[in-house]
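Researcher: Structure prediction, please.
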Amino acid sequence: MNNQNPIFIPGPTNIPDRLRNAMHIQTLDHRAADFAETLAPVLEGCKRVFGTQSGEVITFPASGTGGWEAAICNTLSPGDQVLIARYGMFSHRWIDLCQRHGLEVKIIECSWGSGAPAAQFAEILAADKTHQIKALLVTHNETATGVVSNIKAVREAMDSCAHPALLMVDCVSSLASMPFAMDDWGVDIAVSGSQKGFMLTTGMAILGVSQKAIAAMQSATLARTFFDFTDMLAANRSGGYPYTPPLQLIYGLRESLNMLFEEGLENVYARHHHLAQGVREAVKAWGFELCAHSSDLYSDTVSAIYVPEGFDSNALTDRAYNRYSVSFGGGLGEMNTKAFRIGHLGSLTEVMVLAGIASIEMAMVDLNYPIELGQGVSATQRHFCNKT
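Model: Predicted structure follows.
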């Protein structure tokens, strides 16, 4: 029965029965006309979620990491300079991916818990008079630290010096959960995946790609085959894939979009903010600190929480899993042993969040944390009761 408990990791997220049923289909002919009739509306619906009218949506059978690789392989060449700030595990991994592909990576080292340093980006780009930097890579929502960055401010920093670099954004753990405005923010490639805000299984990288990024493909020489935008766009135009598509995920994505649009995207974002604030009220009641340095950086999809001095966060998440069969996120990178994470995105309700807060409280009491049972639960309850 323990598999009935919701999970509170920051992805993959809980899969609603409606989406599991949508994916529970027999193999169909992906060359048939009815598949083409399914695929085109799915791609168009994703454009609404990305917030783009002028861009294209491209999907690949992959996770978000595959989306990162597709973004750089289609638009850059060996030896190109890219600029990125390291302020968490996922920005770190994007740096590693770029270096493995032979790119020259200019790194701004930031403290974990901070966000994208728009002012420093502006200084470096303004000094790049010959425009050697070809792309600026930013993690919108740093899952390791529970930090959301201001992408609009990054675009304004780029515009302030009229720098032509591509703006690539990892929105894997923010898309379909928090506002994202690809066109308004001037994002050239936005990388997401099926397993978080879309509430599906892992297995589909979903990218929003601007016309500027598509034009960059003409001169890019990094090797690409499986992740070739040109092949995928050509096949999509005729209603198909250049190779076998992840059929069940595409049908699941169609139903996920139906769910999101039925609730209304603004309501989806408001729900995530409301649930996140309930978690933050519990953290405050416990007397603990969030990894995010300030309230403007608080993520509405994941909270990374420091444990008190002398405690091991891995022991806490292990206790919650082994005794109560509830999963929470462990600390990654610099947060290892120091912090645990509560994912509050995707298919979640107030009641589910309360179950998570109660479960982690029991694990804390078992390990002699300096809290009382009900401290966080009651704070979250008061927040939820005050909803107008």
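Model: Residues 21-261 form a domain with the Aspartate Aminotransferase; domain 2 fold (CATH 3.40.640.10).
Researcher: Thanks, that helps.
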